[in-house]
Amino acid sequence: MVKLEEISLDHVEDEYTDSDSSSVYSSDDEGDVDNIESILDRVWALQDVIPPKTRKSIADKCSSVYGWGKYSAKFLGNSAWVLTTSALLLVLPLMIELEHEQGLIEYEKMQQQSSQMLSQPAGQQKKQAGGIVPPGF
Question: Where is the composition biased (Basic and acidic residues) (predicted)?
Answer without folding.
Answer: 1-11
